[in-house]
Write a structure and sequence with these properties.
By secondary structure, the protein is α+β, with helices and mostly antiparallel strands. The chain folds into four domains: 4-95, 2-Layer Sandwich (Uridine Diphospho-n-acetylenolpyruvylglucosamine Reductase, domain 2); 102-220, Uridine Diphospho-n-acetylenolpyruvylglucosamine Reductase, domain 3 (2-Layer Sandwich), CATH 3.30.465.10; 223-339, 2-Layer Sandwich (Alpha-Beta Plaits), CATH 3.30.70; 346-434, Alpha-Beta Plaits, CATH 3.30.70.2740. 36% of the residues lie in helices and 20% in strands. It has 17 helices and 19 strands. It has helices at residues 7-21, 26-29, 53-66, 120-129, 146-151, 159-162, 165-168, 197-201, 235-249, 261-270, 300-312, 325-336, 338-344, 360-374, 405-423, 439-445, 448-461, and strands at 22-23, 46-48, 70-73, 92-95, 102-106, 111-115, 132-133, 169-175, 181-184, 210-217, 219-220, 222-232, 253-260, 284-293, 318-321, 348-349, 352-354, 379-385, 390-396. A five-stranded antiparallel β-sheet has the order 5-6-10-8-9. A four-stranded mixed β-sheet has the order 1-2-4-3. A four-stranded antiparallel β-sheet has the order 13-14-12-15, with helices on both faces. A hairpin with a 5-residue loop joins β8 and β9 (181-184). α9 runs antiparallel to α14. The termini are close together. The structure holds flavin-adenine dinucleotide, (2R)-2-hydroxypentanedioic acid and zinc ion (ZN).
């Protein structure tokens, strides 16, 4: 569709949404047309900010009739360009940020019904205010929204105990590509009416519909948490430490994040106010969080005992336990600032990979050596969610690399890493999704049976291809969407 022929549609959308919900102002749209990593730059015919599910349904009906593509967007913190439109100016950017009401929340139901635009940090606060907790958390909690978290099936730093978004969503309300409203908000513990539309929409990256609200599960509030920083020699030692903690402390351990010394170094260099937790510099670091619900015994003695045993047997080299909540926060700030520190450091290619948990330590060491041999001068910075078998296996450019290293060398580096992951039976995306960044790679190495099934589902639900085309689903020629 040419931009001129969009005029009748834009007029109808403007009439329906009014000035608060419709803009074509370049300055208002600009911050939302570029992704967080500043790797994708798009344009849009208009940015829409509906205030209700009915408005979203009307938008989708109008766009469907005009065969105009819609790109849903929440906090725009995604890592794979999924919320960035193409540069052609003929797509509609649909921001859910104005739909930010928490419709209901209670300790009795242990759930919250949130509109798609609710920001994760606000949900944390609201849950705390009723004496419960929404456990999923991640570095972008100040901007990531419920709709975006659902649509990427986000993980984060407490997956070890509570799972990804998939396990925390009890119900979904969504507008499907034909403009109909799927009302799946009622929380049913058991429901066998066939295909699970809710699960299909989770992780769909906006390609099957617009999530407008969700019923989310809450868990008991934390009575006390203890956060420790540990220095040790290898990822293998780290996984053995996790297993030892699980044996001694069971479910109390809910955060277990691994960082190499190079990662700690860049955080200390680029993030103001951060300090090295240990005097001794160790090759690898682990941040451990153990919690107990209100009224349950403090995990501190068990944590001290487990760390003492690990020091004695030589499994770890050094450790400290935060003496205050402020110190605990400071340790988490180091971990949560990794993405920001990396973005300020040299160029790097990002790989958000998973293999079987027990294979990850070996994979990390062997694959890093293979990458550094194959691309001389590069260095691998692998960090993150070891206990989930998921690390961010990022490859840093050599010293003095050309400014276009990412463009010229990035694709070959990524293909090499993805081949190693595939050979190890793993996944090229453990949490950030496919978006536009990984689409070609998914097509290259994805299981053809799975890809055919995905394309068939996409065609069935979105026959005109208007929902976030060019993201997640490789389509056959001529199926590229409007
Ligand atoms: P957006 O970026 O706006 O959109 C993401 C995708 O969802 C796009 O495809 C978009 O089209 C679609 N979408 C958004 N809203 C809707 C909706 N209502 N309906 C349908 N589709 C929609 N991710 C992790 O999993 N784990 C981490 O630990 C983690 N840490 C991060 C740390 C930092 C500093 C940053 C910047 C990002 C991190 N991320 C992490 C990635 C990101 O925060 C998540 O992917 C998050 O879920 C995106 O939410 P958002 O609201 O910003 O979505
Ligand atoms: C994290 O775990 C995020 O910090 C971002 O998923 C990872 O920046 C990255 O590569
Ligand atoms: Zn992560």
């Amino acid at each position: 569709m040419t931009n001129a022929s969009l005029s009748p549609l834009l007029q109808k959308l403007s009439d329906r949404l009014g000035p608060k919900g419709f803009t074509r102002e370049p300055d208002s749209m600009a911050p939302w047309l570029e992704d967080w990593r500043k790797r994708y730059h798009g344009a849009a015919a208009a940015m829409l900010s509906p205030a209700s599910t009915e408005e979203v349904a009307d938008i989708v009906r109008l766009c469907s009739a005009a065969r105009v593509a819609i790109v849903p967007q929440g906090g725009n913190s995604g890592m794979v360009g999924g919320a960035t439109p193409t540069a052609a100016s003929n797509q509609i950017l649909l921001s859910l940020r104005r739909m930010n009401a928490i419709r209901t929340i209670s300790a009795e139901s242990s759930s919250a019904v949130c509109e798609a635009g609710v920001i994760l940090a606000n949900l944390h606060d609201a849950a705390a205010a009723v004496g419960r907790r929404f456990p999923l958390t991640l570095g972008a909690k100040g901007s990531a929204t419920v709709g975006g978290l659902i649509s990427t099936n986000a993980g984060g730093t407490q997956v070890l105990r509570f799972g990804t978004m998939r396990g925390l969503v009890a119900g979904i309300e969504a507008v499907l590509p034909d403009g109909s409203i799927f009302n799946g908000l009622t929380v049913l513990k058991k429901d066998n009416r066939g295909y699970d539309l809710r699960q299909l929409l989770i992780g769909a990256e906006g390609t099957l519909g617009i999530v407008t609200a969700a019923a989310l599960k809450l868990v008991p509030a934390v009575g006390v948490r203890r956060v420790a920083w540990v220095g040790l020699g290898s990822p293998e030692a780290a996984l053995r430490l996790l297993r030892a903690f699980e044996d001694k402390m069971g479910e109390a351990v809910e955060g277990f994040e691994l960082l190499p010394s190079a990662a700690l170094e860049i955080v200390l260099r680029y993030i103001p106010g951060t300090r090295a937790p240990l005097d001794r510099r160790c090759a690898w670091n682990v941040l451990i969080e153990a919690t107990a619900p209100v009224g349950a015994p403090d995990p501190q003695p068990a944590l001290e005992q487990a760390l003492g045993d690990a020091l004695e047997t030589g499994l770890i080299e050094d450790a400290m336990i935060a003496a205050s909540e402020a110190q605990a926060e400071a340790l988490w700030r180091i971990r949560d600032s990794m993405a920001e520190a990396e973005s300020k450091d040299r160029q790097s290619t990002k790989h958000d990979i998973s293999v079987a948990v027990d294979s990850m330590p070996g994979f990390m060491v062997e694959a890093a050596a293979a990458v550094e041999r194959r691309f001389p001068g590069t260095s691998v910075m692998a960090f993150g969610h070891l206990g989930d078998g998921n690390v961010h296996f990022n490859v840093r450019a050599p010293d003095g690399a050309a400014p276009d290293w990412l463009l010229s060398e990035g694709p070959a580096t990524s293909a090499y890493v993805h081949d190693l992951v595939t050979a190890a039976g793993g996944s090229l995306s453990a949490e950030h999704g496919i978006g536009q960044a990984r689409l070609a790679e998914l097509e290259r190495i994805g299981d053809p049976t799975r890809l055919r099934a995905m394309a068939a589902i996409k065609r069935a639900l979105d026959p005109h291809g208007i929902m976030n085309p060019g993201k997640l689903v490789p389509l056959a020629e001529g199926e590229g969407g409007p």
